[in-house]
Specification:
The chain is α/β, with parallel strands linked by helices. Helices cover 15% and strands 39% of the residues.
Amino acid sequence: MQLRPLITGTLLAGCLLTGAQAQQPARTGPPREAAEEAVRVWNASGTLRVSGDYLVQAAREVTGDIAMLGGELTIAGHVTGRVVAINAAVRLLATARVDGGILVVGGDVSGRELGTVAGTIRAFPAPLDYTREGDQLATIREGESDDSQRWWRRRERWRSGGWTDLRLVSARTYNRIEGLPVFIGPRLGRTTRAGRLSVDAFGVVRSAD
């Protein structure tokens, strides 16, 4: 059976990883309320979603909320709603005007003394871990295990503009000749000025010779 050596290797790697994690301090993310609010604004249908470095020019008016994912959001114009940044930074210029508040999780806000913000400015430097399917995000709560996700679901963890994704997918149904073929492999990516860069690696595991 080809599957048995893979399971043995996986268990060994898991034991080594557990030992390494035990020597490291627990990672603390942003407050749950702030994380859930940021994700809720991003998922809203009326939100302007942007990724990577983005500039709201001085002559422009953004109607409603704007949400940034990764990179730096520079505001020189007018935003009538809220500004939300996830694992990103916000920079306000002298001509910036924000009618709502600013919420940053996984970044900071610069230029507070320059721009005009009617609402509250909140910034939490600890990056946010989340899953992503399509355009929708979901927070990963502290202590949540992968068992709470369906095994075929793509799982992305973003930290400071980078992300990893481990996929485990059944290729087709089981048969006695070839067994159950399974695709498994990591996917790495990062948001850059040029766009979103990703690297994939796949292996095929069969439960029969």
